Amino acid sequence: MLLIVDDDLAIRTSLALLLKKEGFTVRGAGSAEDAFEIIENETPELILLDLNFSIETSGEEGIALLQRIHKFNPKIPVILITGWGTIDLAVLGMKLGARDFITKPWQNEYLLQSVKTILNLEQQAPEVSNRRILEQKYQFQNIVGKDPKLLEILETVGRVATTDAPVLITGESGTGKELIAEAIHLNSKRKSRPFVKVNLGGISSTLFESELFGHVRGAFTDAKTDRAGRFELADRGSIFLDEIGELDLSSQVKLLRVLQERTFEPLGSSKSRTVDVRVICATNRNLEEMVANGTFREDLYYRINLITVKLPALRERPDDIPLLSQFFINNLKVIYQKPDLQLSAAASKWLKNLPLQGNIRQLKNIVERTVLLSAGDVLDVDDFQKHIHTGTSQAGSKSLPEVGTITLEEMEFQMIRKAMDFHQNKVSKVARSLGITRFALYRRLEKYGISYESEDV
Fold first, then answer.
1. Can you give the pTM of this predicted structure?
2. Per the record's keyword annotation, is Transcription regulation included, yes or no (predicted)?
3. N or C: which end of the chain has fewer CB within 10 A?
């Protein structure tokens, strides 16, 4: 049973009709006392609570009822309904235990999405499966590892992927946040639609609106034609906002509006456009700390993190290092046509003991560099030590400096060029062989000026 708390009979009736069409049993209450009487006698699965459900417009009664509900039974999920002008109250409500907030006038599709997502997440999580069972249920081909921490994350990813819940992925650089974002998309009902990746750290505040929302001809000096923004390109699919912690405050306000209202205006246009996207964000920064410091908006933080997935550092799952190393070597066998290429047991053990502050990305570079510079087919400890050495930086942490006359960028260019030639420029096969996503490969192809034929995403 779902409980709607609002003093406006028309709103209660409208919401009840909407929810009943979806098969839910619905009760309504026009006052705090009526609501609490129902709660005491029949535990609702979820409560939709209008912050201004009485003649008062301060929202204080709604907040007081939320606190009373949470004290009586903190397991009952509550979604707040609020006007844009009382967003601050909604954020306070989130701190006090509300699960989400929806602004008026609400969009039916978004409201239903929020209700279904929260009910889905309230179901008891199954025990962590083994890797084989997970792969039977979901698509995790590019994610390597069997560590219990990783398996728990993949179980969560599989469960939330089927909803449209906004997901925030956190973790150190190089831990595979983009791969997790892509896995969420590939296991969702939007998998046949676009997956658009945006590196917010690489977009200046002056270009933010044009890049994300597009522009019309004449919007600024160089706007010769209309241009679709990233949100429009991602319509009915998913958008991955990487490095969201790098956004300045003015851009955060503009992003929040789109996430709240599901509408945007291209730069230079006065016509609003509606967009239907699943939003996945990622950062290696501590957003809670940024909120406390006033550098990240609290309302935006609560809007993007209905689900938070924290990726462990590679040093926290050392048993996966040999698996990842072998995965990279298997890909390199194809690229370099060296079918006998393998990793010795001693080298595998040695790699497990490296600090790897750069996580999976650093491990991949180490393996690639050693394969590129070693003549033999069996990679042993000596092969790795010839081409890298561990030193101590001024900060006291270990680092792996570049050696020889070849840089990582040159090596990356050579590997991508060889892979493109070997796979006849088929981007999907090249990305799979290199162990990266197509979208990551597209960025590198553009970076190095390597021509390619775009594939549907």
1. 0.79
2. yes
3. N
